[in-house]
Amino acid sequence: MEHSVLIEDLQAAVDGQADLKPTPRAHSYTKYNTWTDIVAWMSSMTSSSSGLMTKQVIGNTYEGRAMTVLKIGKASSSTKPAIFMDCGIHAREWISPAFCQWFVKEALSTYGTDSQMTSLLDQMDVYVLPVFNIDGYDFTHKSNRMWRKTRSRRSGSSCIGADPNRNFDAGWCSMGASSNPCSDTFCGYTPESEIEVKNVADFIRRNKSTIKAYLTIHSYSQLLLFPYSYTYDLAADHNELMKVAEGASSALRSLYGTRYTSGPGATTIYPAAGGSDDWAYDLGVKYSYTFELRDTGRYGFLLPESQIKPTCEETMLAVKYIAAYAGRVVGVYRSFKDFSPAAQYVTTAEYSLAASPLGQASA
Ligand SMILES: [Zn+2]
């Protein structure tokens, strides 16, 4: 067996992620921000958004932190289709919350100037949960950089937390999950035993008539996954989901050449029951995707801060592609002609909208 050393000094790499240093730092889109900084950032962004963004608490975490969903979109008297996106289900995947913050910045700062973003927010609402597993995220900043799970406790076990992405009610704990509370992939004591999972599932259930796409952001591996992960069976919409994933991956690759692999979770990464994407899909949210962002293992969870900007920039292209496709958003269709694999699934009437002057508006 041959081997190679990826990281010569792991502690030095951990220490290099400056948030572990005690000195407080201001919020930055190119740094890994602490939960405290993200809370303050959410408030200031909401109040300066001229009504384009509102925030709503969907419940508290196990340790009592408020889970806040940001709703971005032009106010409308009619019901708009929506997208739900969460980041930070797994605590140590720091690039994920960084992307949600980047997305909010881009949405608010380019609305009115970027024609694709403007069309998107005029015609759809985007729900963003910047950090799903807040207790775990905070723990990775203060105690254990490589923590993954929630921080819930149960009498009778000295082990803490469950894997929130094994705790959804989708083939729960049947494969690729552990019933051992000490395992990193512990599925929890029951489906939705983790309060964070229950809060998100309740929110999506309440809004399922409007939510057309569910996006969940993880790292690492550079994959764009879709159902199923709890079975090797193909999803009923497999072909369309694959085409949209390929289109989104092409859009992503167009910026810096970063290659993503697309496919069902079970065969593309590993079988994993109880995942949020499978659950959302079975609930009826057709365009349900899991992103595994950079890299492919050189730094893994310890992705250097210098890669936050390019990672977020390229990921924006894929997210906008899926969002536009799911919402059939006029004016954002240009992306389908640039990266056309999904175009065959768009109806003729919708495609003619794509070729309209509005659709051509952006340079
Ligand atoms: Zn993850």
From TrEMBL:
<feature type="active site" description="Proton donor/acceptor">
    <location>
        <position position="292"/>
    </location>
</feature>
<dbReference type="GO" id="GO:0006508">
    <property type="term" value="P:proteolysis"/>
</dbReference>
<keyword id="KW-0482">Metalloprotease</keyword>
<keyword id="KW-0479">Metal-binding</keyword>
<protein>
    <submittedName>
        <fullName>Carboxypeptidase B1 (tissue)</fullName>
    </submittedName>
</protein>
<feature type="domain" description="Peptidase M14">
    <location>
        <begin position="31"/>
        <end position="326"/>
    </location>
</feature>
<dbReference type="InterPro" id="IPR057247">
    <property type="entry name" value="CARBOXYPEPT_ZN_2"/>
</dbReference>
<comment type="similarity">
    <text>Belongs to the peptidase M14 family.</text>
</comment>
<dbReference type="Pfam" id="PF00246">
    <property type="entry name" value="Peptidase_M14"/>
</dbReference>
<dbReference type="GO" id="GO:0008270">
    <property type="term" value="F:zinc ion binding"/>
</dbReference>
<dbReference type="InterPro" id="IPR000834">
    <property type="entry name" value="Peptidase_M14"/>
</dbReference>
<dbReference type="InterPro" id="IPR057246">
    <property type="entry name" value="CARBOXYPEPT_ZN_1"/>
</dbReference>
<keyword id="KW-0378">Hydrolase</keyword>
<keyword id="KW-0862">Zinc</keyword>
<keyword id="KW-0121">Carboxypeptidase</keyword>
<keyword id="KW-0645">Protease</keyword>
<dbReference type="GO" id="GO:0005615">
    <property type="term" value="C:extracellular space"/>
</dbReference>
<dbReference type="GO" id="GO:0004181">
    <property type="term" value="F:metallocarboxypeptidase activity"/>
</dbReference>
